[in-house]
Amino acid sequence: MVYPFKYPMLYGELAMQGKTKKDLAKFLHITMAGLRYRQSIKTRGDFRGEEMRAASIYLGKSVDYLFSIDKDDL
Length: 74
Fold this sequence. Notes:
Layout: H1 8-17, H2 21-28, H3 32-39, H4 49-59, H5 63-66
């Protein structure tokens, strides 16, 4: 099974901290649709640098950790 999101650690960390995707979208000042678009492996959308930094602050984890990707999946 292929994981349908670009950055699995981002959503994984949300779950571990008991936070929701809706809370993250609100913190990033984007819609839920915007969050899904940025995370989907089926789109060319991606997070902007300031959104990545904001997510890092919100979750208390490094940008490198939250937005790391497995090179085998490319």
